[in-house]
Write a structure and sequence with these properties.
mainly alpha
């Protein structure tokens, strides 16, 4: 961590670099695998409006964290929203597709 070398509390403003600085490759690998498995799972699902929104949520969180460290540190209030978006994406993607198809059919005919 830079604060151990110099008398400053610097942030890299990049989640991936910050995790690498603080925990090393041991912390970065699980984070990258988490996002990779989330995206891979999302792209395996049949395309529906809910799936597209879930994919957009996950990719948006991944891209935003290239410019800020909100999932773990800075402005944790925004991090709570991002973790909620990730959770909603997983819930959406884990719903049985029969229920999603039934709901979409109901919406289409009503």
């Amino acid at each position: 961590v830079p604060s151990r070398l110099i008398n400053s509390e610097l942030s890299s403003h990049n989640l991936y670099l910050q995790i690498l600085l603080q925990v090393g490759i041991v912390g970065l690998i699980p984070l990258v695998l988490f996002f990779r498995s989330a995206v891979a799972h999302a792209f395996r699902q049949p395309r529906s409006a809910a799936t597209i929104v879930a994919i957009a949520n996950i990719l948006g969180v991944m891209i935003y964290n290239c410019y800020e460290v909100v999932l773990t540190q800075n402005t944790l209030a925004v991090g709570v929203v991002e973790w909620s978006l990730i959770g909603l994406a997983f819930v959406t993607l884990s719903e049985p597709m029969d229920e999603v198809a039934d709901y979409e059919a109901e919406q289409q005919y009503s």
